[in-house]
Design a protein that fits this description.
The complex is a heterodimer of chains A (about 280) and B (about 280). Chain A has about 280 residues and is mainly alpha-helical. The chains are: A mainly alpha (about 280), B mainly alpha (about 280).
């Protein structure tokens, strides 16, 4: 077989799979975002109303900005939580043990994401563990509601949801750092801090970026967490869900298009912070 | 001049880089952070497990031990059916995407051609397109081409996003592969296909297992895309749980999650054992 033929043969399934079941549907969605919504259907006439409705309305505009803010803070906090843990797993304990602990980390993800949201309710609720503990210590004299159905709760649960997606890539990059490199630095007289700043951190940075892309993207579209613990906090995902429920496809499509634009902007921004080849090639 | 090392007076005791540092008995702040991280991940889940044995309808206080919720669970045909759907979808989409993803990763690693960078971007798209957008665009697509929503549509949707994840994991493994081993095999007369199956594939196997585990997890755990592409034909477990939770959290939900957790734990340990062989 000629290499060209082989290449085409090997790549066809992926191109068909992703082309037909991702690109074409996205194209349809984009077209729909310019249609006119009618009760229980659409009228196939071009309009910009769906987009103007998003930017002209201060409430929806606020939702868009809030979604971006929540995704950004979740990404940052996940990074802060994940890096030390990944460092511990990759460099502080034997490789076998580290791998096992990584597996342990992934196991909670076999429960449905919904379950993980629900499982926070007994902790964060009015009669939940946090309120009870704070009252026992004497910091509170009556239970607070802010731990549940608030942006605080949303934030906590999102971190728990996605921190693994940050730990994984950082772990991979940290464990691939060749031991010789560190030994060489030691031989040349570098102390632990210098080794970290000049060798370990830069070499693991692509992992941080990769994890940040995962977390940021996953946060943007999430709607089940705000639905169950966010209270009245609205996010784009939730708005899309609600618009679909009332069968307003064009408006949901416009919000989706906006979500894609925000996602791509975020990803491009993150990728510019590192050498792309280090992540994907 | 005879330069034997013994001529030098006491050499400074230089720590040999290969000698591991002696284990420190004290617990460092890194251990603490990692421990707290695990606690953060596991605490809600442990509480959930405990409450699945709680003799009370409410998830707030402990009233005593019971197995009632598990008995109720095995009488609930809807949940069992949903579990079956989820397992079929996860297995099918993992198998399909593992084959497609591995072939793609290998082709992208091996060959360079025109438009490779564009194709690359497209192949990574499912990772960066938010779930909800993928979910509703696929639903719109299936409805427009009049494809019956059900098990098949969920499997297709899951394959569409799993291909990319498999590709990323396998490719990372390929990148770390020692090319000289493949070359040696070819020098010894093996053709490309034989080399792939006898040399590349075994070397790749840890990556393949990792990719399969990831794909299975993503598919089995997926709620958003299943929620939109399921229709009325088939209900996977997360979607079934969603409809149950909307009416309030029942301890039966805790029981099913506990069971799923235990089953996956066993699966993961088995995979570990297999990998070691």
């Amino acid at each position: 077989m000629k290499p060209t033929l082989k290449r085409i043969g090997l790549l066809t399934p992926a191109i068909i799979g992703i082309g037909i079941f991702l690109l074409i549907p996205l194209g349809f969605l984009l077209i729909y975002s310019f249609y006119t919504p009618r009760p229980l259907g659409v009228e196939k006439s071009f309009t910009l109303q769906n987009y103007l409705g998003i930017f002209g309305n201060p409430i929806t505009l606020d939702t868009v900005l809030r979604t971006i803010r929540i995704a950004t803070t979740t990404t940052l906090l996940c990074g802060l939580v994940a890096y030390p843990a990944a460092y511990f797993l990759a460099r502080k304990i034997p490789q076998k043990k580290g791998l096992m602990l990584m597996v342990l980390l992934v196991i909670p993800f076999w429960t449905s994401s919904l379950i993980r949201t629900i499982s926070w309710l007994p902790l964060l609720g009015r009669n939940g563990a946090i309120n009870l503990a704070l009252m026992k210590v004497g910091l509170l004299d009556h239970p607070l509601d802010i731990f549940l159905f608030s942006e605080f709760a949303l934030q906590i649960v999102l971190i728990q949801y996605y921190v693994v997606f940050m730990i994984g890539p950082i772990y991979i990059f940290l464990s691939q750092i060749p031991e010789n490199l560190i030994n060489a630095a030691k031989t040349l007289g570098a102390n632990n801090w210098k080794i970290f700043v000049h060798i370990i951190f830069p070499l693991s940075f692509p992992g941080i970026i990769m994890g940040s892309i995962f977390v940021f993207v996953l946060c943007l579209g999430n709607f089940e967490v705000p639905k169950f613990v966010g209270g009245i906090v609205q996010t784009i995902g939730l708005v899309i869900l609600n618009t679909i429920t009332i069968l307003n496809w064009p408006k949901a499509a416009a919000f989706s298009a906006l979500l894609i634009v925000i996602t791509l902007m975020g990803v491009i921004l993150l990728l510019r912070m590192t050498n792309v080849k280090k992540i994907f090639l | 001049m005879k330069n034997t090392p013994s001529q030098y007076p006491s050499l400074p005791a230089f720590p040999h880089p290969c000698v591991p540092p002696s284990p420190r008995p004290h617990i460092s702040w890194l251990d603490w952070i990692t421990g707290l991280g695990y606690l953060f991940l596991y605490a809600p889940i442990l509480i959930l497990i405990v409450f699945s044995f709680n003799n009370s309808r409410f998830n707030v206080v402990w009233k005593g031990f019971t197995l009632d919720w598990y008995i109720k669970l095995f009488e609930d045909t809807k949940i069992l059916e949903a579990l079956k759907v989820s397992l079929i979808v996860a297995l099918a989409s993992t198998a399909i995407s593992l084959v497609i993803g591995t072939l793609t990763a290998w082709a992208m690693y091996r060959y360079s051609f025109k438009g490779k960078r564009i194709l690359e971007g497209v192949l990574y798209l499912p990772i960066i397109i938010p779930d909800i957008v993928m979910g509703i665009s696929l639903t719109l697509f299936f409805v427009l081409i009049k494809f019956q929503l059900g098990m098949a549509s969920i499997i297709i949707a899951h394959v569409a996003f799993n291909i990319s994840f498999v590709m990323v994991v396998v490719r990372a493994r390929l990148q770390g592969l020692d090319r000289t081993l493949e070359e040696a095999a070819m020098d010894l007369g093996a053709d490309e296909v034989t080399t792939f199956f006898k040399v590349t594939l075994p070397l790749l196997s840890p990556g393949l297992i990792a990719a399969a585990l990831l794909a299975f997890t993503l598919s089995f755990d997926d709620f958003v895309i299943s929620f939109f592409t399921a229709g009325v034909g088939a209900t996977p477990l997360p979607v079934q749980i969603y409809s149950m939770v909307k009416l309030g959290v029942s301890p039966v939900v805790n029981a099913i999650s506990t069971l799923v957790l235990i089953i996956s734990f066993i699966l993961v340990i088995l995979t570990e054992k297999l990998q070691r062989k």
